[in-house]
Specification:
The protein is an alpha+beta fold and 632 residues long. The strands form seven sheets. It has a seven-stranded mixed beta sheet with strand order 5-10-13-12-11-16-19. A two-stranded antiparallel ribbon has the order 1-2. The two termini are 41 Å apart. The protein contains 21 helices and 19 strands.
């Protein structure tokens, strides 16, 4: 079988038809599975690896049904190693050029140790401080014990599973089938009865979790004010009440009945957030043979045909390099992007709850890796039940503190590709959000006539006379060259209007920071922030001083906040589609807009017919036959 299995997720449908080449590959997959009797049930049934929720390698189906499912649903994501269909050897896989064989990996990790698959898993999890040739510290000693566990067979004469591999497999089965802890304990006891007395199988869920705990990543649970005023962190970690609103930190839980009432000593917070430090995860990118080389891709690739294929080709990246040559001279220093958005985990019909994950990704990686799920690191989980809005900065404090440390001091990191330690530093390049979240991150209001973050107070927005709605129509001509003919056009834009005004340019970070300081805006964590910022926001578009200005390099960025293209494309498409198809209730071509159109523009052909009181058809709305042609 081929080590390259990208075909599983590419080329299934070509020009609207199922690909014959892809079908041949499916036949090869089925034949491979049938050659392994231990994975076949009843002679003709194999596990169905399609992406249907009920299948996903859980159900045994006959091979013809499996083929139909695969054609219809495709393969379950990331099933590059066919462990449920008889494959024993693990092909380490990473996209594009990152294809490291087992023998190459062993050689890069250690020339002297006999590594198993679980050896490699432990070594990748151990991070940069782990080196078997040195005297291990307390943390490394735990990993060393795990490597020994990876060597120990379950019992004498067993070559299939070690203690660690069995523990990991049991946990994987528990998660995949969503089994309870009680089921896990019962199954472990039953397996104990089947194995010889001197076996090393963990006795229960607790001992299994304890064995593999070292593979995990740290998480901090931080108590919050129920009104999102503050978090009990840093200097405020010992407070028992909010220093802004006075709300208690802990719930008072009463037990008992009648005259025997008592308050439980166990302290239960009203609200808590989760913070996942990014430093260990960035270190593991260099500790893993699959990604260490790729972390230098941003500096080693060459721009082709003058086309930007990665943020490192952009002027904003190069400007940052010029401002901080000491940072850019070490190509292994990490460039990060941050994005946040809210969602309702219980759906629209369930409990109303707004949960806000904050995700960080590394732009050192090539384009086909940095946007993959496994390289998007959840760092902050902002709890609900309501949208944090401008108070999201409260929950970003631990992240900003860690980013400041990674910028100023850095952390010693082991690069396995060069087999050397270096001082890794990191910088946040920008944020990526939709328009409402842009306001939450930047502190500039994206509502009202000052919503444009480029024009700011220089906005030319106006209110429509009849409807009172805000309009930015014909605000774009000031961006044109001064001698452009559109500037003198008095017919096709707002009638009888010439534009001589020029856009003054986007403000620099120093100019924005000076404006914030002059106005006296506060960070939302300050005690008087709500009152002070509310008064200032009535006279300008600013509603707070963003916490990102605490980063010492933030003012030097050419580009600090990006708009999410997905949301923009969707909204623009929806508005155009609904208008062109004249969908009732969603089209922008309404009688109200027609009434106001000729107050600002010369469009007499679209005006209301005073005799019939009807509005004429417009050329951009499709008739019935045209709609059918488009949909066909």
């Amino acid at each position: 079988m081929e080590a390259d299995r990208e075909w599983m997720y590419e080329g299934r449908i070509v020009n609207g038809m199922f690909s014959n080449k892809w079908g041949d590959k499916v036949d090869e997959f089925v034949a491979f599975a049938l050659r392994h009797p231990e994975c076949v049930n009843g002679g003709t049934a194999i596990r169905c690896p399609c992406n249907l929720v009920k299948c996903q390698n859980k159900k045994f189906l006959n091979v013809e049904t499996v083929k139909v499912h695969l054609y219809k649903n495709g393969f379950v994501p990331d099933y590059y190693v066919w462990i449920y269909h008889g494959e024993k050897e693990v092909h380490q896989r990473c996209s594009r050029s990152v294809r490291v064989s087992v023998s190459e990996t062993d050689q890069m990790v250690s020339d002297n140790m006999n590594h198993t698959t679980y050896h490699r898993m432990v070594c990748d999890a151990a991070g940069p401080e782990f080196n078997p040739d040195e005297e291990p510290n307390a943390e490394a000693r735990n990993f060393y014990d795990m490597i020994r566990a990876g060597d120990k067979p379950m019992y004498e004469g067993n070559s299939k599973h070690t203690q660690l591999s069995a523990a990991v497999r049991m946990l994987e089965i528990k998660c995949r089938h969503r089994c309870s802890q009680a089921w896990f304990d019962d199954m472990s006891n039953f397996i104990q009865e089947l194995l010889p007395p001197d076996n090393l199988m963990p006795l229960d869920f607790y001992s299994t979790k304890k064995l593999v705990r070292g593979l995990g990543l740290p998480v901090q649970v931080i108590h919050c004010c129920v009104n999102n005023c503050m978090i009990y962190w840093g200097d405020d970690s010992d407070l028992n009440g909010c220093k802004k609103c006075g709300h208690a930190r802990y719930k008072q839980t009463v037990r008992g009945s009648g005259n025997r009432l008592y308050i439980r000593k166990l302290k239960v917070p009203y609200k808590k957030m989760h913070y996942f430090p990014i430093t260990p995860r960035l270190q593991r990118l260099y500790a893993s043979t699959a990604t260490a080389n790729e972390m230098r891709w941003h500096s080693e690739h060459h721009m082709e045909d003058g086309k930007m294929c990665h943020p490192s080709d952009a002027p904003a990246w190069k400007h940052f390099d010029g401002c901080f040559p000491d940072f850019s001279s070490e190509v292994r220093n990490v460039r990060l992007g941050l994005f946040a958005n809210g969602f309702q985990p219980f759906g629209q019909s369930g409990q109303q709850y707004s949960l806000w994950p904050v995700v960080v990704t590394s732009y050192n990686l090539p384009p086909d890796l940095c946007m993959k799920e496994e390289f998007m690191f959840l760092t902050v989980l902002v709890p609900g039940t309501t949208n944090p809005k401008g108070k999201i900065d409260v929950f970003l404090q631990p992240l900003i503190a860690e980013l400041k440390s990674l910028w100023g001091v850095g952390v010693q990191t082991y690069d396995i590709s060069k087999r050397q330690n270096f001082q890794m530093r990191a910088a946040l390049m920008w944020t990526i959000n939709d328009f409402p979240a842009y306001s939450m991150m930047s502190g500039w209001s994206t509502a009202g006539m000052l919503a444009c973050p480029h024009c700011m107070e220089d906005s030319d927005a106006f209110r429509l006379i009849k409807s009172g709605k805000q309009s930015w129509f014909d605000n774009h001509r000031k961006f044109l060259p001064i001698n452009h003919p559109y500037r003198r056009n008095t017919k096709d834009f707002i009638k009888n209007r010439k534009v001589t005004k020029q856009f003054p340019g986007v403000r620099s970070g120093d100019e924005i920071l000076q404006d914030l300081n002059n106005r006296g805006l506060r960070k939302v964590m300050d005690v008087d922030a709500e009152v002070v910022n509310a008064a200032i926001s009535k006279t300008c578009g600013w509603n707070k001083r963003s916490i990102f200005w605490d980063l010492p390099y933030w003012r030097e960025h050419l580009l600090r906040h990006n708009l999410d293209v997905m949301h923009i494309e969707k909204n623009v498409f929806d508005n155009i589609f609904n208008t062109v198809f004249n969908i009732p209730g969603k089209t922008k071509d309404t009688y109200k807009s027609r009434d106001e159109l000729n107050k600002y523009c010369r469009r007499p052909q679209f005006a209301q017919n005073l005799v019939t009181s009807k509005y004429p058809d417009v050329p951009f709305v499709l008739n019935k036959s045209q709609k059918k042609d488009v949909l066909d």
